[in-house]
Amino acid sequence: MEEQSRRSATLTRQHAELTQDIEKLQAQQGSIAPKLAKQLKDLSEQVGTVPVTGPGLTVTLKDAPSQVVKDNPDVDADWLVIHQQDIQAVVNALWAGGADAISIQNHRVISTTGIKCVGNSVVLHGVPYLPPYKITAIGDRRKLQKALDDSQYIDNLQDYVVKFQLGYEVKTQSSIAMPAYEGTLDLQSATVPGFDKKPTVSPSVTGSGR
User: Fold this and answer.
1) Residue 112: CA atoms inside 13 Å, Cβ hemisphere, count?
2) What is the pTM of this model?
């Protein structure tokens, strides 16, 4: 996932630079060279700023049923709900499986998209959503499914699916129409006090526990 994040960061930077170059040329000449237009189109598809269509699959995650919660009063409530790291683990696995595009709740995301948990909801692009959470990916369905099956985190999540009936369903689709990414392409950096202030951009989830 670190390699995917670095590649995404590079593509995003190239897209921003090329867009600026084209805007300057348009201001000066009023037209775009065909070569530059094609480069922008190709980069836009890779970065996610244009709609795409193709085969793929959707993973649906749900909290445990209310009856299960009532029947298990002594169980940690955190074990009975879907968390941001569960969503991120699915997203990370799909990227690792070669996904060409991913959306959450029908909102296009890129590898640098942040997913936050606030109370019992997940916030995406500043908007809170309640379960069920639908994570959709376009790409080779067999490779995407294998990546999900190979994920250590998702394998651990299956224990909670069995014990507490958390919802985890995978549905393959022959054709998926996915919208363009609408968030900012500005790259944000994070630093740790006491360490070299080198920008990092990575949504990867580590560990296998909840």
Assistant:
1) 24
2) 0.70
